[in-house]
Amino acid sequence: MSSNMYSSSSNSFPLLTTLFLFLFLSAAAQSSSECSDQFRGMITTPRQAPNCRKLTTLKAEFGWTIHQNKTTAVDVFFGARLDNDEGWLAWGVNPGPRPRMIGTRAMVGIKYKNESFGVDTYNITSGTKLGCPLLPSKFDADDHVIFSNLQIRNQSDLVVISATINLSSKYDISRLHHVWQVGDEAEGNEPKKHPTTLQHVDSTETINLETSIGRGVGQHRRHLRTVHGILNIVGWGILLPLGVILARYFRQFPYPWKYWFLAHISIQIVGYTLGTIGWAIGLALGHSSRYYTFRIHRILAIFIFTFTTLQMLALRLKPETTDEYRKYWDMYHHFLGYALLALISVNIFQGIAILKPDHTWKWAYIGVLGALAAITLAFEICTWVKFLQQPKKEKDKDNNKSDARALTGGVGDGGKLLPPDARASTGGVGGRGNPSPSLTRDAGDVGDGRPPLHPPDAQ
Q1: How far is the C-alpha of 412 from the C-alpha of 429, rounded, in Å?
Q2: How far is CA 202 from the centre of its chain?
Q3: Which helix or strand (DSSP H or E) is residue 4 part of?
Q4: Which residues contact 392 (CB under 8 A, 6 or more apart)?
Q5: N or C: which end of the chain has fewer CB within 10 A?
Q6: What pLDDT, in 10s, does the model give residues 325-348?
């Protein structure tokens, strides 16, 4: 049994490592993957094969061609999916020191409710951010950028806007600040305010059109969000449930293992440590954010950390097995642990919904939960099968032992038979006033032939 458990534990760590690397690499590859075949087909002509790449947010795609004889003239293509009956998409350049919405000279394509399309140029000012109407405006040499040959086309839900932009010396195509956006509502030629999710707020980048390498202003924050998510999924979402499963099924019944407690606390400590690091990173990200806050996700995270820490204090603060309050502490410890596991799963799904990464994250975690549920169900079935198949004589023997302990008053009285009133006054356990073992069944006690009611804790 011990060797099998060691083998199982050693096999689980490569699995967790593989999951960690898979999620990290898939998230990293998301920002550097090439554009889709559909987008490439819409912007490629017999005379032109533009460079193109997927952008880091909103599932947007960007293509460009630098004119050979004029390094300040660039054909640009921007595509995104507009799934609703109306909406808009926008792409622009900012001559300022960093890419941001205010100061951007943009082209905006609008999808109208009658399924027609239009495209025009817009100047994004500070008034736009304050709620002033955003209406079309033309650019000239004083604006340091001129848009020409504006076009809009669609194929299914993919809408592509394109133009030729002539840039002044104020722009550097090796460090071009560009901004993109997608919205759901438009009124005539006026695009309405876009949502304020992370995907929309982070839709900025500085790109080198000569090398196709782009770096977002919030790129380090996106990496930290990825690390935050992975640490909490692995630490709180995988390791903590594994520790609970081990404590429930390997303490005494149905598969007694003498090293269960050492393995249990080791897994819980590692899971708690990883989860706490991820929680601290999340707090730092929330504190540094100027544009958004996710109140429910933050409150749930603080609640989880607080009560998970309280659970970990059980290593030092739990009552002794002889304490009369031990059974109540066991109930509190177990049911709080179950509630935390449910709350952790809810908050992980909420975090995935906030980040809106590739669906790989969501389905990978659903697969993890499914695997944990399957393992728990298999062990639970084995527990009851083993209990029901237990020989009747062995059950009767265990019951007789339990009755004998009740009649002799338990331990500490020399095994003497006590009168009923004496046994009642002493409680049957060494005269300390504690109830009889036959009446107070501790977690994991299988002396009466019944399976445990809830996961046992350390004695």
Answers
A1: 7
A2: 18
A3: helix 2-30
A4: none
A5: N
A6: 888 888 888 899 999 999 999 999
